[in-house]
């Protein structure tokens, strides 16, 4: 068995008696230390967000993401949103898949890898107004229509996506004021 790995310095793992390497939060300890996950994107494990299971898990979410980006490539009204992405969609597909898995109540891979989503901050560099929001939603709605057969689930997800897309707007007419 290999000695425990220090996440801040993988070459050595000085461990105080009965504890973990200093400065490294730990969830469990077998032969590898794991970082404590950041708060969940949508719901903490065990809170009962049923959407992940209702969708069919990660394979269906992956399919949803693939169809979403296929529509972004194909729909003329989505050209400006597509231009905000790099030519290689592989990395962004992976990130969106992990985000949606967690957002729908699945495993917390997104938060463990990337921390809190901070969606507004991560999208602030892009001009997002009603046109971009609507184009994004057109792609997501088309993907939902193709992938999700349950009408109630599809409506719930579309409503949640629409709220999130509107939340990301950063045009002058929709400036977000800090909460007091």
Strand elements, count = 0
For CATH, the homologous superfamily of the largest domain is named as Globins
Give the SSE string.
HHHHHHHH
Classification by helices and strands: mainly alpha
Total helices: the number is 8
Task: Provide the CATH topology of the largest domain.
Answer: Globin-like
SSE layout and pairings?
Blueprint: H1 51-55, H2 58-74, H3 79-82, H4 90-103, H5 109-114, H6 119-123, H7 130-147, H8 151-167
Characterization of this structure:
- The chain is mainly α and 180 residues long.
- It folds into two domains: 1-36, no CATH class; 51-174, Globin-like, CATH 1.10.490.10.
- It is built from eight helices and no strands.
- The chain has helices at residues 51-55, 58-74, 79-82, 90-103, 109-114, 119-123, 130-147, 151-167.
- Helix 7 runs antiparallel to helix 8.
């Amino acid at each position: 068995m290999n000695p425990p790995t220090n996440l801040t310095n993988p070459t050595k793992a000085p461990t105080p008696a009965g504890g973990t390497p200093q400065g490294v939060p730990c969830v469990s300890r077998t032969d590898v230390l794991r970082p404590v996950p950041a708060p969940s994107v949508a719901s903490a494990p065990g809170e009962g967000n049923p959407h992940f299971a209702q969708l069919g898990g990660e394979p269906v979410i992956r399919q949803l993401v693939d169809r979403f980006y296929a529509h972004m490539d194909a729909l003329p009204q989505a050209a400006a949103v597509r231009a905000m992405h790099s030519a290689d969609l592989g990395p962004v597909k992976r990130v969106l898949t992990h985000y949606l898995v967690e957002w729908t109540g699945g495993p917390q891979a997104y938060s463990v890898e990337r921390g809190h989503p901070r969606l507004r901050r991560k999208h602030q560099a892009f001009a997002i107004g009603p046109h971009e929001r609507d184009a994004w939603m057109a792609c997501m709605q088309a993907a939902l229509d193709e992938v999700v057969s349950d009408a109630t689930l599809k409506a719930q997800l579309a409503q949640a996506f629409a709220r999130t897309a509107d939340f990301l707007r950063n045009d002058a007419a929709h400036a977000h004021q800090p909460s007091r």
